[in-house]
Write a structure and sequence with these properties.
CATH class of the largest domain: Mainly Alpha
Helix content: 25-40%
Number of domains: 3
Number of helices: 15
Largest sheet: 8 strands, antiparallel
Structural class: alpha+beta
CATH architecture of the largest domain: Alpha/alpha barrel
Distance between the termini: 45 Å
Length: about 575
């Protein structure tokens, strides 16, 4: 199976996804993302990181929404004046030495510049990207052969300046982004795809081989760094890299889900240390799940993508269009974090309302990739792996999708235009949480279909005016924890892919450093409910209402507590 995206120029998004995307785009033109702020915003030794993330975010949003960014040209015009004499940001590395935070930051900058080059065909920006790759990234090739992986090597690193303790906010005091040097693989593989230099391929092999020797759990490696590196591995495999690396990526991602993914599909910020979630990693996991599905055809990964987007991403996304951290649902935070008194493991609630220095910017690529994920192509077949209101153009075929998913399991596709006499196949994801056998109708009449690898397939010589309807049903079900470290003897209630929660009333005022203790309710797995529509349920004979985390009418506020796990 060789699946391809159709390109953002041929996709028009509507509905909830469009609203969230526009909210984030507006935030990305706010205080922290203007040219007079961008180059001086970082105070913690991450040259290239802020600059690269915002450039990549703005290019991604511009291509997805077809609206020109307000400040992008000004940021790029200022960039050459900020480069050192070697053509990159920050201090010039001493011969043979590298700084992993600088490499990680320039991975984002490289990706942002390449994205701009592909959009605008700018030789000036291409030259800057080439300079970064030749003068900063490639000289680090030999260093990755001895990236510190043992406790002794970490104490006395050889020719490495490792990530150091951060104090970005009081709540993040003392955090160390262990393993962040491997974020570089994302930018490195993108540079290889774009420039096609053989020396980049040689470096990719070295970086991957060293990464696969890391003790991710024992070393408490940052999950954002882990998942970003796995995305780089997927890109390399897509470019023809060895299939053994795809096997390794699957193994690590599957392990991540079992021990470091929260019950709302967020993440532990470090392997084995559930201090908070980080939207950067949640976004990584969503993009990665889609990528693994395309590379393997395993529908499990498409189911993962649905869960991550409609729960982990949805809750991390805030009412103001930004992204912030949450307490790790299902886990008790370490004592040093002061979370035991402020957080209950059965409750989902924000920890840091906005992480403007990284996660809000990652939202730009997230929404572009989410738009791109609405369809994929394979010869004459058009795949619908996830369902959003949209209009897509695929080789003369124009399709308008209208759906109430994820609240209801119904999808309508109007054939707006089609080449006469050409037989096409449409393939729709069949979720494992369906409530009845799928039904497909064409112009009101039941249509034959096939089911294979988690997808329903229909074929025909479609004509303008044809209407295809697909229904698989959604309903309430009970789920057990998927993370082996989650507090035991609990369960969650789901409507289709949606995690259902019991919201608590916000206090009139409170001290953010000392949020009020949540009120815990017992709801046995056999509790009877009555459906209220849009994924909401009322306890039968009572007044308690469970509602989805994914609810655009109630985006995460500055204080927001929802019980998501239940005993009984």
């Amino acid at each position: 199976m060789t699946l391809k995206a159709i390109g953002l120029n041929d996709i028009e998004i509507r509905g909830d996804l469009a609203v969230r995307s526009v909210l984030n785009y507006g935030r990305l033109e706010g205080q922290w993302y203007r040219p007079w702020e961008v180059f001086g915003a970082d105070k913690h030794g991450w040259p290239g990181d802020w600059e690269g993330r915002v450039i990549l975010a703005l290019v991604s949003q511009a291509r997805a929404t077809k609206r020109t960014p307000a400040w992008l040209d000004d940021i790029l015009a200022e960039l050459p004046r900020r480069l050192n004499e070697r053509g990159y940001l920050g201090k010039i590395c001493e011969p043979g030495w590298v700084n992993e935070q600088q490499l990680a930051g320039h991975s984002w900058l490289t990706r942002g510049l390449i994205a701009y080059c592909e959009w605008k065909r700018s030789p000036e920006i291409r030259a800057i990207a080439e300079g970064i790759v030749r003068n900063l990234i490639l000289p680090a090739m030999a260093n990755f052969r001895n990236y510190p992986i043992t406790a002794e090597q970490v104490r006395e690193p050889d020719h490495w300046e490792l990530s150091h303790p951060q104090s970005k906010t009081q709540s993040h005091k003392g955090s160390i982004d262990t393993g962040c040097g491997f974020i570089l693989l994302d930018g490195l593989t993108e540079a290889y795809r774009f420039f096609k230099w053989p020396e980049l391929k040689a470096m990719i092999e070295i970086v991957i081989q060293r990464f696969l020797k890391l003790d991710l759990e024992g070393g408490h490696v940052q999950t954002h760094a882990t998942l970003t590196c796995l995305r780089g591995i997927c890109r390399y495999v897509e470019l023809g890299g060895p299939k053994k690396y795809l096997t390794a990526a699957r193994r690590i991602f599957d392990r991540y889900q079992k021990v470091a993914m929260t019950e709302h599909y967020g993440n532990y910020n470090w392997w084995g240390r559930p201090r908070w979630t980080e939207p950067c990693a949640i976004i990584d996991s969503y993009i990665l799940a889609n990528w693994l599905w395309k590379l393997t055809g395993d529908p499990k990964y498409q189911a993962d993508a649905h869960h991550i987007f409609y729960n982990g991403v949805a809750h991390a996304f805030r009412a103001e269009g930004c992204f912030g951290t949450d307490w790790c649902l299902g886990a008790v935070p370490p004592d040093e974090d002061g979370g035991a008194a402020a957080h209950h493991p059965l409750v989902l609630q924000p920890r840091t309302y906005e992480v403007y220095w990284c996660c809000t910017m990652r939202g730009g690529e997230l929404f572009a990739r989410a738009a791109e994920a609405v369809v994929a192509t394979d010869g004459d077949a058009v795949w619908f792996p996830i369902f959003h209101n949209c209009t897509v153009t695929v080789d003369g075929l124009i399709l308008r999708e209208t759906t109430s998913y994820p609240c209801e399991g119904t999808i309508r596709v109007d054939i707006v235009a089609a080449k006469p006499g050409r037989r096409r196949t449409l393939k729709f994801f069949l979720p494992p949480w369906k409530t009845h056998k799928p039904v497909v109708k064409m112009n009101g009449k039941t249509m034959a279909f096939r089911v294979a690898k988690g997808f329903v397939s229909v074929s025909g010589n479609f004509r303008p005016g044809d209407v295809l309807e697909y229904d698989f049903g959604l309903g309430l079900h009970v789920a057990k924890p998927h993370n082996g470290n989650t507090v035991r003897k609990v369960h969650s209630f789901r409507h289709g892919p949606l995690l259902l929660t019991l919201a608590q009333a916000a206090p009139e005022s409170f001290d953010p450093a000392k949020p009020p203790a949540p009120q815990i309710v017992t709801l046995p797995a056999k509790t009877r409910f009555e459906a209220l529509g849009r994924g909401k349920y009322r306890v039968k004979g009572g007044d308690r209402v469970l509602s989805p985390v994914y609810d655009i009418e109630n985006l995460t506020q500055r204080w927001h507590a929802r019980q998501a796990l239940f005993e009984g």
